Amino acid sequence: MSVSDPATTPLDPSVSPPARIAEVGEGVSIDELRLAARNHGLPLEMLCHDVSPPGLHYVLVHYDIPTVDPQSYRLRVDGAVGRPLELDLDDLRQRPQVTRTVTLECAGNGRARLMPRPVSQPWLDEAVGTARWTGTPLADVLADAGVLDDAVDVVFTGADHGIERGVEQDYQRALSITEARRRDVLLVHSMNDQPLPPQHGAPLRLIVPGWYGMAHVKWLQRIEVLTGPFDGFQNATAYRIKVDSHEDGEPVTRIRPRALLAPPGWPDFMTR
């Protein structure tokens, strides 16, 4: 019996192919347009507001938006801890509450202008937004769980599940234990003084001020403390800056400064 070579075996057409660079002159594909329809950006003229309305704040969803029942919701905190926790929304709301105004930006903002162009969500400049986020400090939850001395990374798992580049997965990202213990990192249940909308991670999400959007895990269902580095897909494969596809690349972390100038006059319908 022969074994198929994964490099030459055609993929299921419903599964996205491995990451690639567009060919010279290759236009935006139907699949990329589908992504653009699901994931919307902020109309840039709304940057005049200090806080973005939730419906205008940019949205990026990797898989389907999960429907999570807030009544039965539980957050697990386990792994390399002395006292594993299981917390419902009331438990989290009864803890000390903090509100922070935080700007989020997608790590792929401006991707469609790159030359050569990575084939993915075709952002131009609009993947940004600012909101007031309310929740409880992650550091206090980790302290109550009794993080062990040999902890290295903290993994955050969302309820969103799907297939990316042929890999079936829950969406998971990790922070170092040092970053996770920062006092400004929050477990958030409210956005602009209202419960989180479904597209923004209801009923609970992570907010990591200063980091690109991929770190702010939505629909958070588990926090696991590891005694070694996390090697999951979204840390080890995705969200890395590479010059060559075969290198490990530099991990994407903190937001880099950028600026926008509003042009004078009236906008054109097609080009803005």
What does this molecule look like?
By secondary structure, the protein is of the alpha+beta class. The chain has a domain at 65-105 and 129-251: Oxidoreductase, molybdopterin-binding domain (Sulfite Oxidase, Chain A, domain 2, Alpha-Beta Complex). The protein has helices spanning 30-38, 89-94, 138-145, 177-180, 233-236, and strands spanning 75-79, 85-87, 98-105, 128-137, 153-164, 167-176, 186-191, 194-195, 205-207, 220-226, 240-241, 250-251. It has a five-stranded mixed sheet. Strands 3, 4, 7, 8 and 9 form a five-stranded antiparallel sheet that branches. Strand 5 and strand 6 (167-176) form a beta hairpin. 28% of the residues are buried. Residues 1-10 have low confidence and may be disordered.
Helix content: 10-25%
Order of helices and strands: HEEHEEHEEHEEEEHEE
CATH-level-4 superfamily name of the domain at 65-105 and 129-251: Oxidoreductase, molybdopterin-binding domain
Name of the level-1 CATH class of the domain at 65-105 and 129-251: Alpha Beta
Number of helices: 5
Strand content: 25-35%
Q: Within the largest sheet, what's the order of strands?
A: 2-1-10-5-6
Query: Could you tell me the mean pLDDT?
Result: 91
Shape: globular
Chart the SSEs and their pairings:
Elements: H1 30-38, E1 75-79, E2 85-87, H2 89-94, E3 98-105, E4 128-137, H3 138-145, E5 153-164, E6 167-176, H4 177-180, E7 186-191, E8 194-195, E9 205-207, E10 220-226, H5 233-236, E11 240-241, E12 250-251
Parallel strand pairs: 1-10
Antiparallel strand pairs: 1-2, 3-4, 4-7, 5-6, 5-10, 7-8, 7-9, 11-12
